[in-house]
Design brief:
This protein is of the alpha/beta class. The chain has 10 helices and 7 strands. Helix 3 runs parallel beside helix 4 and helix 4 runs parallel beside helix 5. The longest helix has 27 residues.
Amino acid sequence: MTQAAVGFNEGQSLAGKRILMSGGSRGIGLAIAKRAAEDGAQISLLAKTDKPDSRLPGTIHTAAEEIADAGGTAHPFVGDVRDYERVEEVVAQSAEKMGGIDIVVNNASAINLSGFGSLSHKRWSLMKDVNMGGTFNLISAALPVLMESASPRVLSLAPPINLNPQWIASHAPYTLSKYGMTLLTLGLAEEHRNHEDFSAFCLWPRTLIATAAIANVVGGEEGMRRSRRPEIMADAANSLFTRPAQATTGKTFIDDDVLSEDGFEDLTRYTTVPGTPDSELQQDMFLD
């Protein structure tokens, strides 16, 4: 049975908030979960990585341990966000364990930058089914419980819609799958525009973020050196969660813009190599 939560303390903390996230075994998702855990939040994770993989750091179980160590309560659920029946089960079990859901985070994502003729049908299906399909599944399954919260929030880690031909030409399949996440989220925001304290929004990094995807797919060792740490996305997400709904809903934010609005001017603490100037960081995709 769900329990109504009090509204957010704007600009303060996520203490007592109940978060359901897809993915989160590593990278940006885990950083967001740990930042919320520092405030005393509960976090349910729906992720596939049940056993260690030599190519990827961490599992859903090690993530749960890190969340607990950070001060939060973790509820790990092994499952595939592409499986709607499993998503429904996890939503129900998460709501039962946490007493409801206040925040949904669409974090799970698949990436392949191949173009037509190079991208296999299998890889294309994976990207669209995880990125777009997973976002649709989690929102659809969680929405009835989420709307019982006093201040429901939905965050998708998705980029601003940018129709510069560069992004369409370079990797149209991946671009479509990520823009699909954005459109679903912004569409949700408009659908519930009249709900006074409902907010759905997107967040994207200004620069590459040092994750397994960057190391293995996008930038390799050089890309990691020119990246920021996932904690910048976690701090930005935390700020957005606690802002008034009408200040965030229906918008796509960039991480360092969010922190600048909060008065943070020196972001060098987030670089993977201490002291790296902004001019040497590599800008992320979809930003001109």
